[in-house]
Write a structure and sequence with these properties.
It is built from 13 helices and twelve strands. With about 375 residues, it is of the alpha/beta class. Strands 5-6-7-8-9 form a five-stranded parallel sheet. The protein has a four-stranded mixed sheet with strand order 10-4-12-11, with helices on one face. Strands 1-2-3 form a three-stranded antiparallel sheet. The two termini are about 40 Å apart. The model has no long low-confidence stretch (mean pLDDT about 95). It binds magnesium ion. Magnesium ion (MG) binds near residues 199, 201, 227, 228 and 253.
Length: about 375
Amino acid sequence: MDHATPIIRNLRARGVVVPMKRPLATGGGTVAKVPLALVDIEIDHGIVGSAYVFCYTPLALGPVVQLIGNIGEALRGAHLAPATLFDGQQARFRLLGLQGLAMMAASAIDMAAWDALAKARGVSLCRLLGAAPMPLPAYNSKGLGLIGMEGAPDEARDLVGEGFTAIKLRLGYRNAAADVAVARAVRDAVGDGIRIMTDYNQCLDPAEAEIRIRALAGAGLGLDWVEEPVRFDDYAGCARLRAKAALPIQIGENCWGVHDMQKALAAGASDLFMPDAGKIGGVTGWMRAAGLAEPRGLPLSSHLYPEYSVHLLAATPTRHWLEYVDWAEPVLKSPLPVVDGHATAPDIPGAGIEWNEAAVSRYAA
Ligand SMILES: [Mg+2]
């Protein structure tokens, strides 16, 4: 085995816009197509590390791809030491701030760099991080947008039927009674044995959030958590709400890096936390987030990126739930399998991401 640090020979960034099986209406807006920036880092011996980052809106796809390419030019010839490279991005973007598009680009490059390093070492990403692959509980987040009483019960049954024992339900209907009615219909449809997570996508004000969480808790529906009821970065507001809420508050997917996460934790903003690999700083940022969570006993769940998160959660002492979405599946050779509601990191070199090049060409943006 070659123990020398490989050299980055080339970096390629491409954009695709892929279709969604179930367009997702949330309290924070609708996602109908998935814009993804794909990154490939080539190192010595022709080894290629790959990753993708979700760009939320097609408007941001071109700029993110270009930013990744620009950074890639500067990385050509650098040693493949992902954490050191990530700290280099912190320095490079200190005056701009490592957040927003810059953080998405840095996170994508970091994930691809770790993938390349794992392949160079001949181990899976989770083994490179010192962890063994293990079955992780996954919830099905591929549907149950704001589709109303007419569609929600059937879709809930469909999501469970895909092999899951937990599902995510978006809320934010016209009032508390409407939220409770849909949540009750979904609970009745799937039965008591299925876990249900709920998500407001930041659409409530603090007063309304208090009313709705009280109504949901009072309905006794056995909900696992209430996600982002209010603006995620109103950390003091989240903490006040949490003090009154009879259901666990979940936030984290919108925090830019561990410095945002530290502010949220210092404020006591949530009971649970769910970093997004594309916003927290890739693998490097995630491992630092796991280090913040461990001494606090803070349960960490993932947001998007199941193919990477399945490795990251295995290396996270306070691992909680894997969010399962299939958004990148159209451009992947093999999707992450879920068996009996659990996903296990593939025990092959790297993270297990390989592009379906015909599909990448078809969906090129
Ligand atoms: Mg969410």
